[in-house]
């Protein structure tokens, strides 16, 4: 007998879960919902319910997780590329700084030297003319401008 009472109680609870839903709009234009009609003119709302498709939910979850993993991989790849680009820029800046220092040293040497020369094959010196010296100094100045600005 107790078992029959429990079954009837369970059925009554499940029947109340599928109760009707009523909808109406008040004078202010606000929509209301209730399990019983509170005003005249309330409309019974037809609510469809379907059993849960657990396999479809599991498949959708699997796809969502796979997409999130792919998104994370893409984000990590983007971060890696950014890190490499920053390292390359840092290397470029270090190279530019070193080249700037070299260009400045060469320019100072060419500017401060009383006479410039180029070495010959036999170990001697061939002194440059004033036009050649001016051209070499201009080239050194252009190198400073290129690397230091």
Can you walk me through this structure?
By secondary structure, the chain is α+β, with helices and mostly antiparallel strands. It is 63% helix and 12% strand. The chain is built from 3 helices and 5 strands. The chain has helices spanning 2-17, 54-112, 130-148, and strands at residues 21-25, 31-34, 43-45, 117-119, 125-127. Strands 2-1-3 form a 3-stranded antiparallel beta sheet, with no helix packed on it. It has a two-stranded antiparallel ribbon with strand order 4-5. α2 (54-112) packs antiparallel against α3. The radius of gyration is 43 Å and the shape is rod-shaped.
Summarize this entry quickly.
By secondary structure, this protein is of the alpha+beta class. The protein has helices at residues 2-17, 54-112, 130-148, and strands at residues 21-25, 31-34, 43-45, 117-119, 125-127. Helix 2 packs antiparallel against helix 3 (130-148).
Topology, please?
Blueprint lengths: L1 H16 L3 E5 L5 E4 L8 E3 L8 H59 L4 E3 L5 E3 L2 H19 L1
Antiparallel strand pairs: 1-2, 1-3, 4-5
Helix pairs in contact: 2-3
| Helical content band | 55-70%
Strands ordered across the widest β-sheet: 2-1-3
Shape: rod-shaped
- Taking pLDDT < 50 over at least 5 consecutive residues as the criterion, the unreliable ranges are none
Q: Helix count? A: 3
- Based on DSSP secondary structure assignment, what is the total number of beta strands? 5
| Radius of gyration over C-alpha positions, nearest whole angstrom | 43 Å
Return the string of H and E elements: HEEEHEEH
Strand content: 5-15%
């Amino acid at each position: 007998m107790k078992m029959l009472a429990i079954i009837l109680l369970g059925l009554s609870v499940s029947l109340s879960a599928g109760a009707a839903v009523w909808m109406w709009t008040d004078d202010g234009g606000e929509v209301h919902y209730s399990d019983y009609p509170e005003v005249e003119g309330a409309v019974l709302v037809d609510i469809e319910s379907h059993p849960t498709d657990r396999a479809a939910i599991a498949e959708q979850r699997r796809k969502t997780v796979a997409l999130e993993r792919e998104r994370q991989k893409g984000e990590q790849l983007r971060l890696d590329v950014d890190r490499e680009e920053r390292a390359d820029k840092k290397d470029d800046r270090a190279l530019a700084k070193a080249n700037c220092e070299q260009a400045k040293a060469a320019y100072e040497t060419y500017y401060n030297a009383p006479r410039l020369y180029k070495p010959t094959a036999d170990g001697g010196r061939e002194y440059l003319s004033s036009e050649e010296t001016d051209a070499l100094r201009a080239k050194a100045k252009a190198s400073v401008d290129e690397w230091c600005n």
